[in-house]
Design a protein that fits this description.
Blueprint: H1 33-45, E1 49-52, H2 59-73, E2 81-84, H3 91-95, E3 96-98, H4 100-113, E4 123-125, H5 127-136, H6 145-150, E5 160-165, H7 173-177, H8 179-184, E6 186-189, E7 194-197, H9 201-204, E8 207-213, H10 221-224, E9 228-231, H11 237-247, H12 255-269, H13 280-292, E10 301-302, E11 305-306, H14 312-319, H15 323-330
Parallel strand pairs: 1-8, 1-9, 2-5, 5-8
Antiparallel strand pairs: 3-4, 6-7, 10-11
Length: about 325
């Protein structure tokens, strides 16, 4: 009889986790002169600013930068009110939320135990609705204190930046349903038959709307006519270098290495047949890790060929997010 012995070896696997200090302060964002001009025009005309561009080019970060800057000079809230668009979004979602399920449960419970809450207890202002309420001012709003408290509407009038992120994800009717509301800064809370509306120019000056889209062609013409449009181009080598120096604590001794890594990045970005091209934000992460590991000097390309070494598998997935792309690069 044969006896098979199964030998099991246990290895102590050590995992070393390194913490990288990330400085994502909005003040480190560098808007182009053209982008600043577009914001100024949008503000003058009281129109939404629609930003397009490749993912990772800074469309969303610009709204945070604008809120941060305006909080210092114009008394705006220092972060934007954000609405992340979904494929199921409706126009109401941008202004307020009514929790009908919780209200129904409360009604059932009150029938058994007595008491109960009102409809106002289940309404909360969101994004643009909150910005409109803050522009009008709490004391001038004809709303229940329950709604104002649920929504954290402050006593003082205040300006706000509203970020409607990735609006191209929404159903096609979503932008059209917002035409009147965005143009006139008004909306209705149907459950309590109440309409909020900005009534004067001073109040309108307290609201800036920034929309982002990866594909402007998906937006209806009627909506586009009401927007100020700006496309954020993919940064040049010089601008990408400037972004890295501004965003990260880079020693001047490493400036030459950063220039080389910028060139490496563009070779990755323009590499033939790459399906998912790396973005600016991925480049920043890549540099952060290389800096943390003291490898800013590491060469990744010699002429047009990728340098094969033991470190490549660790750092390549920071930039390249497609399995076929990684295999294609490593197989050359």
């Amino acid at each position: 009889m044969l006896v098979w012995l199964k030998l099991i070896y246990y290895f102590d696997i050590m995992i070393t986790l390194k913490n990288i200090k990330l400085d994502n302060s909005p003040s480190n964002y560098i808007p182009s002169p053209g982008l600043l001009n577009a914001l100024e025009v949008a503000y003058m005309l009281k129109r939404p600013l629609l930003l397009t561009g490749e993912p990772g080019t800074g469309k969303t970060q610009f709204a945070f930068w604008a809120a941060d800057q305006l909080s210092r000079t114009e008394g705006f809230h220092n972060t934007p009110y954000i609405y992340n668009t979904k494929t199921s979004s409706t126009a109401q979602d941008l202004f307020y939320n009514y929790d009908a399920i919780a209200h129904f449960r409360d009604i059932r419970q009150s029938e058994e135990q007595g008491g109960g809450k009102t409809t106002e207890d289940f309404i909360q202002l969101k994004a643009l609705g909150l910005a409109i309420a803050n522009a009008i001012g709490r004391n001038d709003l004809r709303l229940s204190s329950r709604i104002l408290d649920n929504s954290n509407v402050i006593p003082d009038k205040r300006g706000s930046v509203v970020l409607i992120d990735e609006i191209d994800k929404a159903p096609r009717d979503f932008p059209n349903d917002l035409l009147n509301e965005i143009e006139n800064y008004e909306f209705e809370i149907k459950e309590i038959n109440t309409r909020l509306k900005v009534t004067d120019e001073e109040q309108k000056q307290r609201i800036i709307i920034v929309l982002t889209s990866n594909f402007e062609k998906n937006l209806p013409d009627a909506f586009l006519r009401r927007c100020i449009y700006f496309h954020i181009d993919f940064p040049t080598r010089e601008r990408l270098f400037e972004i890295i120096i501004k965003r990260l604590d880079i020693s001047s001794d490493d400036y030459t290495n950063i220039e080389k890594r910028v060139n490496d990045f563009f070779q990755f970005h323009h590499y033939p047949n790459i399906i998912k091209k790396p973005s600016t934000s991925e480049f920043i992460d890549w540099i952060r890790v290389l800096q943390n590991d003291n490898l800013l000097h590491q060469e990744f390309f010699q002429e047009d060929r990728l340098v094969m070494n033991d470190t490549l598998p660790k750092y390549l997935p920071i930039l390249i997010k497609n399995k076929d792309d990684i295999n294609r690069l490593l197989a050359q």
